Amino acid sequence: MSQEVRNLEPKQLWNKFADLNAVPRPSKKEERVIEFMMDFGKNLGLPTIKDEVGNVIIKKPATAGMENRKTIVMQSHLDMVHQKNNDTVFDFDTQGIEMYIDEDWVRARGTTLGADNGLGVATIMAILESTDIPHPAIEALFTIDEETGMTGAKGLKGGLLEGEILLNLDTEEDDEIDIGCAGGVDVTASAEYDEEEAPEGSVGYRITVKGLKGGHSGMDIHKGLGNANKIMNRLLFDAFDNFGLQISKIKGGSLRNAIPRESVAEVIIANAFDEAFVFDMTAIVDEIKAELHTVDPDFEVVFEKLEATDTPKKVMPSMAQYFFVRSMYTAHNGVYRMSPDFEGLVEASNNIAKVDVADGQLTVKCLTRSSVESSKMDVANGLRSAFELMGCEVEFSGSYPGWSPNPDSEILDIMVDIYEKQNNSKPDVVACHAGLECGILGTHYPDMDMISFGPTIRGAHSPVERASIKSVQKYWNFVLEILKQIPEKK
Predict the structure, then answer these.
(1) pLDDT digits (tens, 9 = 90+) for 26-77
(2) Which residue is catalytic, options 145, 146, 173, 296?
(3) What is the pLDDT of residues 225-273, one digit of tens each?
(4) Cα–Cα distance, 451 to 419 (Å, whole number)
(5) Are 123 and 203 in a shared domain?
(6) Same domain for 287 and 163
(7) Going by C-beta distance under 8 Å and a sequence separation of 6 or more, which residues neighbour residue 293?
(8) GO CC: one term (predicted)?
């Protein structure tokens, strides 16, 4: 399957992508891909180091005639989001990604593709390996753990790099040049409760919310996609108020930076309400389907009546559940504020990413983003208040800064000119709502001129992730011309 991908043009890029996708590389477990990248640099005979947190830096001198150009840093992250469909049998810790071609798209079979940020990594690898691509001196920076904390970028020390220009290859629209991004903070609410015995005469149900598209909690947050955790809570809220439903377990979502696609709850109701419960829930699901039919046409909810032996024996007490479902309803999800300075840009948002309730413990994990630090904390404090009112402990962690646009960027002017000449159209110069590493890297190297760009990728952070073949060809030509036109040293 990967062989047909290897035959795509540009072959040097797609071959490196296939090599990379054969290496398991989940966030927090990058040991194998770090070793892979270290071996790659050393086998090329290039100076290759691993810093104290695991970032890999490979340096390549300028090609003949380019020695007087500014040194550039080409940067991408090694880790990828691991998501799969529930019916896909796949072990991310041991298996390489199974790729295939679908018309203009490269996809993976039931899993994330790893184009985010594997195509950027593969681009840099292809250039490092090349013998006929003109370029200035290059410092290739491969960071770790971008997707779950950006600890690689945070741990990078000043003084390791000498480059004056940084090209971050981690955006997902080939007609965009990014000059700014949002910062973020993880918000985690947790609490304990004393379970109680399920009342006699109870009927058990397993409720499964599924079929949602999910997506990137930054780049896709404005699309109005369904959030499985909020939908599940909507159902539980109604059934609790009308039928006295009690929760035994909830497991919804997986990663903070992925809009949750699925949620499963095990609940009980009194036998007397059985038929009315199903009738009422079906009506609510139909309402939600009507709301989401444009953006999530495959959304569905399955109500599975449990056998008596599988009916939950322990449940959350009614008062604890009263506060929980109301706090979940109160907690903001989605766009919080649009930027007044950049048309169409989300300024602040929140993703209620993961909900776990079981065995007397509950945890709700969110990722709050904003390009403005004060509004980021405004959203985070709103969430904190909603959950503290129900008695939760709330922790803020993993905070990282946004990246402020540089209106005087020299490399931006060069790239806009190249794009116009190659495509007979102007690129969109934008700031994005995703969390790029540029903001963090800029704290270590404040004088570095930074730009982010990349090929078109759809559905990042979900099993429908795909990369456009034509776009990768367009992007590759763009990269090659940028390398030729890096300005001279001053």
Answers:
(1) 999 999 999 999 999 999 999 999 999 999 999 999 999 999 999 999 999 9
(2) 146
(3) 999 999 999 999 999 999 999 999 999 998 898 999 999 999 999 999 9
(4) 14
(5) no
(6) no
(7) none
(8) cytosol
CB 333 within 8 A of CB 352: yes
Q: What is the CATH number of the domain that holds 329?
A: 3.30.70.360
Same domain, 160 and 303: no
Residue 57 and residue 122 in one domain = yes
The pLDDT of residue 212: 96
Give residue 175's pLDDT: 97
SS3 label, residue 169: coil
Residue 372 CA to residue 318 CA, distance in Å, equals 39
Query: Which tokens hold the place of 201?
Result: 């005469």
Known active-site residue 79: yes
Confidence (pLDDT) at 434: 86
Mean pLDDT of 459-475: 95
**Within a domain: 239:** yes
| Catalytic pick among 19, 30, 79, 170 | 79
Give Cβ neighbours of residue 406 (< 8 Å, ≥ 6 apart).
Answer: 179, 412, 449, 450
pTM for the whole thing?
A: 0.78
Q: Which two three-digit tokens encode residue 38? A: 């270290």
In angstroms and rounded to an integer, the radius of gyration of the C-alpha atoms of the chain is: 24
Domain edge (last residue) among 330, 348, 366 = 348
Task: Give Cα 229 to chain centroid, integer Å.
Answer: 17
Considering its fold, how many domains does the chain have in total?
2
How many CA atoms lie within 13 Å of 356's alpha carbon, on the beta-carbon side?
Answer: 13
CB 211 within 8 A of CB 254: no
Gap between the Cα atoms of 254 and 215, Å rounded: 12
φ and ψ of 412, to 5 deg: -60, -45
Q: Answer yes or no: is pLDDT of 305 > 90.
A: yes
Active site residue 194: no
Query: Which of 292, 291, 226 is CA-nearest to residue 262?
Result: 226
